């Protein structure tokens, strides 16, 4: 018989024995916690098996001690790599099992918020808060996550969550604000499209679009040029009377950013839209 299997059988027998006797629930709680923290390699303790013996007093003792030990642990900050810590790992395992057994959201959040080494961890916290009706706190964590990631990693997922919650709360202007700040931090087509979808039918869209264009011009980086080209393709696909002027303005800005390569890029557009005489004629009329 495997040693681990034997240990599990012993714990199961012990749990049943405790439930059938008058074991002191507080002493039992201390014993269960000490077993796991002093012997991290021991099998996981299932609190459900000890529920009858622990009763409310024992479970409260177990929770209070575990939380008191866990709260002082340092947070793993963004970009940091948490080194293996045997004691921390054992306590983390205790807290995860306790949060799952009690279905205590605050415990779950306490556990998750001890590791903020990536944007995905911020997203986990925000998602748990959102799913439990704590929208305001979720949005605060999204903002913290976006500041930490600087437009990388889980940024788009964080933005999606923020947009969904702000729109659901009847505050689309706040959704636009989040997307605008994200775009100014790290321009991308995906964020531009989110802003466009939220604001295109509002009076604020033309000046906002102008601000985004101006930011790309000031940026002038290779990333900005790629965003320009992708935006032009999107606007061409959606082209109407209004979008026609928009496409021309984007092209004019792109020509200023990349004069040497612009002719080749314009030829590429003409070849892809060779059947669209209206577009080709308009480009020629506008000096392209």
Task: Walk me through the structure.
With 288 residues, this protein is mainly α. 75% of the residues lie in helices and 0% in strands. It has helices at residues 3-20, 25-38, 51-70, 86-102, 105-112, 119-131, 135-149, 155-168, 172-185, 189-199, 205-219, 222-237, 241-257, 259-272, 277-285. The longest helix is centred in the N-terminal third of the chain and has 20 residues, at 51-70. It is elongated and about 95 Å long. The N and C termini lie far apart (80 Å). The mean pLDDT is 86.
Q: Which secondary structure elements does this structure contain, and how are they paired or packed?
A:
Layout (H helix, E strand, L loop, with lengths): L2 H18 L4 H14 L12 H20 L15 H17 L2 H8 L6 H13 L3 H15 L5 H14 L3 H14 L3 H11 L5 H15 L2 H16 L3 H17 L1 H14 L4 H9 L3
Helix pairs in contact: 1-3, 2-3, 2-4, 3-4, 4-5, 5-6, 6-7, 6-8, 7-8, 8-9, 9-10, 12-13, 13-14
Number of beta-strand segments: 0
Q: Please count the helical segments.
A: 15
Major sheet attributes: none
Order of helices and strands: HHHHHHHHHHHHHHH
Q: Extract low-pLDDT stretches.
A: none
Shape: elongated
Whole-number mean pLDDT: 86
Structural class: mainly alpha
- Give the terminus-to-terminus CA distance: 80 Å
Rg, nearest Å: 29 Å
Relative strand content:
under 5%
Estimate the helix proportion, in percent.
over 70%
């Amino acid at each position: 018989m495997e040693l681990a299997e034997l240990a599990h059988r012993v714990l199961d027998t012990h749990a049943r024995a405790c439930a059938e006797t008058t074991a002191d629930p507080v002493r039992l709680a201390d014993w269960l916690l000490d077993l796991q923290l002093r012997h991290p390699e021991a099998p996981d303790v299932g609190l459900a098996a000890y529920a009858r013996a622990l009763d409310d007093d024992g479970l409260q003792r177990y929770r209070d001690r575990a939380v008191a030990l866990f709260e002082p642990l340092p947070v793993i900050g963004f970009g940091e790599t948490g080194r293996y810590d045997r004691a921390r790992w054992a306590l983390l395992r205790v807290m995860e099992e306790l949060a799952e057994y009690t279905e205590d959201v605050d415990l779950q959040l306490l556990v998750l918020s001890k590791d903020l080494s990536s944007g995905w961890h911020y997203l986990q916290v925000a998602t748990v808060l959102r799913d439990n009706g704590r929208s305001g706190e979720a949005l605060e964590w999204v903002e913290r996550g976006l500041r930490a990631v600087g437009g990388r990693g889980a940024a788009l997922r964080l933005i999606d969550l923020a947009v969904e919650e702000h729109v659901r709360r009847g505050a689309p202007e706040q959704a636009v604000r989040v997307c605008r700040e994200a775009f100014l931090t790290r321009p991308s087509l995906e964020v531009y499209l989110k802003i466009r979808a939220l604001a295109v039918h509002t009076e604020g869209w033309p000046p906002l679009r102008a601000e985004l264009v101006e930011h790309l011009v000031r940026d002038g980086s290779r990333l900005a040029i790629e965003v320009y080209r992708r935006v032009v393709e999107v606007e061409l696909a959606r082209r109407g009377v209004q979008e026609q002027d928009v496409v021309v303005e984007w092209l004019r800005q792109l020509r200023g950013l990349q004069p040497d390569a612009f002719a080749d890029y314009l030829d590429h557009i003409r070849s892809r839209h060779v059947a669209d005489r209206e577009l080709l004629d308009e480009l020629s009329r506008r000096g392209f």
